[in-house]
Design the sequence.
């Protein structure tokens, strides 16, 4: 657990994000995506910017941390991204409108890309990693990611088309391996080697595969089951680790407070009740900010 707590954040993203994002993008259906794309983009771009700006104001004016604006905006971009896995599953179980489900799921997937771009911009400015024009930086992150994702998606489609025999078990395995290896390679090459947004790149690659790959796939059900399993595995591991790390820090604070031998030591490494109260206030503020962002964009969503 201690090793996971101190793992490099970029490595953590490279482990978990490719499987989670590629599976969501690969499940897109073209006719529904086309009908809902404008609404998803409105929520994913202006919605994320509004939420990030309002969250930054909350952090600057109501929390006792005195963060600079660039760091507050980076924090706001993290909270601006949504994760409606449970909501989408509930809507599917209730037989809700597929268009509504597509808007929620599509917006979640797209705002992951836009939120990570905003985060990279402002966090890079906060730590002094970026210099020059923000517009040029955003153009490089976004356009470069789209081109990289399309290139990887096209390569995966080409290789999948070379093994189309539906009755050959080996061809099915090769196609599954191509999608898994291609997803992780797309994220790593885009993020690490090319220096563009790996999240946007893998979303573009997954969307391209969703629109053109299925007629070439030998066994669609088996491939979907594989990716659903990978999504469940990485989601479960991610939330388990988050709970263990936060719970461990809470227990550490209790030990530091109750053990007389540690009475004079620094308590900043733990989480106390005041921290948990701020988390609760921030959760309520994030819900309110999300409501304001969606309500302000309602005329564009009709």
Sequence:
């Amino acid at each position: 657990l201690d090793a996971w707590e101190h793992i490099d954040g970029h490595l953590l993203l490279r482990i978990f994000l490719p499987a989670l994002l590629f599976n969501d993008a690969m499940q897109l259906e073209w006719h529904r995506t086309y009908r809902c794309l404008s609404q998803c983009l409105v929520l994913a771009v202006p919605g994320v910017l509004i939420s990030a700006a309002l969250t930054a104001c909350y952090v600057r004016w109501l929390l006792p941390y005195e963060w600079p604006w660039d760091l507050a905006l980076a924090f706001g971009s993290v909270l601006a991204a949504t994760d409606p896995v449970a909501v989408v599953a509930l809507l599917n179980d209730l037989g809700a409108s597929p268009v509504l489900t597509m808007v929620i799921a599509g917006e979640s997937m797209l705002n992951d890309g836009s939120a990570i771009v905003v985060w990279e911009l402002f966090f890079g400015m906060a730590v002094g990693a970026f210099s020059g024009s923000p517009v040029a930086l955003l153009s490089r992150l976004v356009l470069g990611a789209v081109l990289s994702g399309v290139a990887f998606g096209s390569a995966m489609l080409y290789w999948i088309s070379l093994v189309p025999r539906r009755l050959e078990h080996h061809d099915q395995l090769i196609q599954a391996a191509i999608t898994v290896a291609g997803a992780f390679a797309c994220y790593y090459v885009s993020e690490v080697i090319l220096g563009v947004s790996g999240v946007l790149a893998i979303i573009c690659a997954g969307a391209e595969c969703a629109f053109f790959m299925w007629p070439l796939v030998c066994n669609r059900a088996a491939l979907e089951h594989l990716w659903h399993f990978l999504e469940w595995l990485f989601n479960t591991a991610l939330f388990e680790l988050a709970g263990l790390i936060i719970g461990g820090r809470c227990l550490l604070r209790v030990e530091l407070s109750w053990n007389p031998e540690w009475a004079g030591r620094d308590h900043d490494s733990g989480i106390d009740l005041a921290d948990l109260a701020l988390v609760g206030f921030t959760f309520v503020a994030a819900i309110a900010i999300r409501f304001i962002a969606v309500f302000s964009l309602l005329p564009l969503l009709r």
